[in-house]
Amino acid sequence: MSEILDSSKTRLFVDAELGAGLSIGVSPSQAHYLSQVLRLKSGDKVALFNGRDGEWIAGVDGAGRGWCSLSVEIQSRRQLAEPDLWLVFAPIKRARIDFVAQKATELGVSRIQPVMTRYTQVNRVNTDRLAANAIEAAEQCGRLTVPAVEDPLALDQLMAGWPTERRILLCDERGDAPGAREALAEKSGAPWAVVIGPEGGFHPDEREKLRRLPQSTAVSLGPRILRADTAVVSALSIWQALVGDWR
Amino acid sequence: MSEILDSSKTRLFVDAELGAGLSIGVSPSQAHYLSQVLRLKSGDKVALFNGRDGEWIAGVDGAGRGWCSLSVEIQSRRQLAEPDLWLVFAPIKRARIDFVAQKATELGVSRIQPVMTRYTQVNRVNTDRLAANAIEAAEQCGRLTVPAVEDPLALDQLMAGWPTERRILLCDERGDAPGAREALAEKSGAPWAVVIGPEGGFHPDEREKLRRLPQSTAVSLGPRILRADTAVVSALSIWQALVGDWR
Q1: Has the ipTM of the complex gone over 0.85?
Q2: What is the CATH number of domain A2-77?
């Protein structure tokens, strides 16, 4: 199996159903990538995943301008359960928000939920671009799924509909939250969300509301001021190491 | 004290000694930033730190083309001990290496040590640019020091002179290393280094040598393939949460 995998380092996320013997087409941009950028020829292999059917090795059948047809051959990895972890974050500016989508995907987030808070400086979020970043990162990091990218919600709206069973890891810039080892000592990998405020932090009222939620566990990310994008990577890493699938 | 601090969000790293009543000049680029970009006037305040004397509030005395003179007034923060944590990492390409220097600084690293490994793709490291990135990040994140940026060393050379007492957190892409909670359970905040390989990972011989060092603790960063810059932020965050000053 490892030989098959090594021979196909190219991984593509597709919509189509995957199974032995199926023939599938890819999007025009994927076709361009396969035939013009990678210059794959008939018989060359790629790996495909769709978030449902595991990872499959497929061979190139033929390609032309804007199309490429592939034959699905053999399953290289079975679909596995992945952490049920949302990232809720206040959007930031262009390069850094792309970065957040990429890193959250690498770090195993299942859903990316932008949230508008009082100190959020950014009014519009290009969720299509975030989704494209998430797909590319999922292809590169070996995931079998792509996180869902949701439309932005106001913080109040999000909190009003918050699922009872979903815990919140709240990264609190105030110095009085405990460290992660203590705060997450007895926690399980049940549904969670990591919640990160905007560059200026949450408004005191927002922070108070969030901390009072019964689902909420506040942790400190130390004495230095982290940029919002750093806080995202730090908090997700700590969650994975202490509660998630890095254990 | 907090009023004084709030009135001066501009923080500058300087070489000069800092103490009440001292008058100091800043570099031409800092002078340009203060007088042309921020348009500070006589009497406006900034915060200064030099890595030794804590943080001081200083008032602008005067400024002209390429110079700015400041009077040091009152100490706003005392110099505190910071974690003794090195980051040893295989250099990566331009934007991502800048990012590593910035994030390592925010995450409290005391020394940034590029290391050349067999699979390292980058031959030259612009340590001046790394140092400039580290200074800017230190100014923004509220640190009282700037990490030392060292010239690159070959991995063998680095290992040959490795200090006996400095522990190594080795981020191992092989699946057989334990998770961080287990691996770092009984560890203290004594001198440490986080060691991160290049995008392709360490050569098996290199990994074996590193794992065999008595100072070495290997940890897993989970089942997904992390980019080298993500691994840097993840590993430093986990170290800070479990061993460092985020506890």
Answers
A1: yes
A2: 2.40.240.20
